[in-house]
Amino acid sequence: TLALLLGTLLWAPWRALHGAPLAELSGDHGFQVFLQKNLEFTRKIKGDVAALQRVVCDTFQLCKEEELLLVRQDLGITQAPLEQCHSRTFQAEACFSQIRDGLRVYHGSLATVRELLPGHTGLVETLQLDAANLSSNIQQQMEDLGLATVTYPTEGQGPLPALSSHFHHQVGGFFVLANFQRFLETAYRALRHLTRL
């Protein structure tokens, strides 16, 4: 499977790069392989999130974000931060740390979607596994490259707030997927940016 393939790739001989500045790494073959594989992996995850978004749209007629913004404010659902990945002072360590932490947050919040779509449990669980694997890949790569790992505070990022009604639960699931898709798009752009340095 892709997850096993990625796991195997992580054990490539990158130990020699320990502590090297990112500018030196960007041309490094092992680092480029890591970026390419995880770009593909991120693209796959985005496709799975889009498939679940279509299911939520078809099943609950929840398709347009702008129609649900007031409910979102009531629910207090927030986006996992990724400002380190598109700031002008782009720092690979900080960006990788935020991607890793955000993937862990979404791994947890996808439980809401799993409850909402019992007929699609397999796809949601695959998505959770993929989010966990991508997070581990990034953590492992940071360690292999000797990059400092930073853990960003995630207050308000834990499980979703208590969803009082079935409708709120549906809207909560809708926004978990919409936010996750946006998060993945930013992460994808950041990884692609690193391939071009």
From TrEMBL:
It comes from the Eukaryota. GO terms for cellular component: extracellular region. SMART domains: IL6. Pfam families: GCSF. Gene3D superfamilies: 1.20.1250.10. The keyword rRNA-binding does not apply. It is found in: Secreted. Keywords: Disulfide bond, Glycoprotein, Growth factor, Secreted, Signal. PROSITE patterns: INTERLEUKIN_6. One of its GO terms (molecular function) is granulocyte colony-stimulating factor receptor binding. Residues 1-19 form the signal peptide. InterPro entries: 4_helix_cytokine-like_core, GCSF/MGF, IL-6/GCSF/MGF, IL6/GCSF/MGF_CS. The keyword GTP-binding does not apply. GO terms for biological process: immune response; positive regulation of myeloid cell differentiation. PANTHER family: GRANULOCYTE COLONY-STIMULATING FACTOR. Belongs to the IL-6 superfamily. This is MGF factor. It comes from Spizaetus tyrannus. The gene is Mgf.
